Amino acid sequence: MFTGSFNIVGFDQYENVLADPEFYKSLARTFGFAAALVAGSVLIGMGVAQLMTKLGPVMRWLVTFVLIFAWAMPNVASSVVWKWLFQPGYGVVNWLLTQTRLFGDVTNLSWTDNTWLAFLEIWLLVVWQAVPYIAINLYAATTQVDKSCLEAAQLDGCSKLRCYWQITVPLIKPSLMVITMLSVIWDFNVFNQIWLVSQGGPRETTATIGIFTYKKAFVSFDIGTGAAASVLVTLILLALTSVYIRYLLKSGEDL
Predict the structure, then answer these.
(1) Domain positions in the chain
(2) What digits encode the pLDDT tens for the residues 155-177?
(3) For 73-100, b where at least 16 C-beta lie within 10 A, e where not — what string?
(4) Cα–Cα distances in Å, from 237 out to 31, 146, 229, 241, 244?
(5) CATH number 3.20.20.70 given to 12-251
(6) Closest by alpha carbon to 205, among 32, 20, 9, 86?
(7) What is the pLDDT of residues 1-41, one digit of tens each?
(8) What pTM was computed for the model?
């Protein structure tokens, strides 16, 4: 860049990425973790949305305010606070778990020293950040469901749980599909939370594709390989999004 000369490398950077076993490991981790995040956030969001339909006006307003407040908090700030809550020695979570006496004395437990505990800590953080948006949108969709359909089903002896899964869910399916697709894209690209909590540790076992790309580009200073990995991730997300768009076109829903 400073000399004014350059060498054309063609597809060498992509070959380097595709030949790196860590790329495939991080990609597999990303798919698994994103699936767990989407499932958790969408299911919990559905539950919270349904709960909001049962609340009175004042309580519903209070819950909505709390959800919006949690969702509006910058994820960097909330991630730093979350890490403090799980700190060994003085973390509130370890103290509460110790008080329950179910797991013994876990005051000095370091969550990020264990792969599964580190993933659990990050999973709880990301789901906590995602649920408000999902719950509020699904609540809005649920309120548009024709109550006469639910009343007719209940008169026929259908339980409330069965009414929800067989009547409400199909009717809010378009909104649910949009939210699920957005969640897939967001959760596939989770970076701040993982970097601030574990930085991909222990031993790179929580390093998703975002962490892999960042370390290649800005830790190892292999900018070309990092950029190539980013392009490949973009292509993967385009492929996932195209599946959703194809579904919309086949079902006749508006884009």
Answers:
(1) 12-251
(2) 888 888 899 999 999 999 989 98
(3) eebeebbeebbeebbeeebebbeebbee
(4) 11, 35, 12, 6, 11
(5) no
(6) 32
(7) 556 666 776 688 899 899 999 999 999 999 999 999 999 99
(8) 0.90
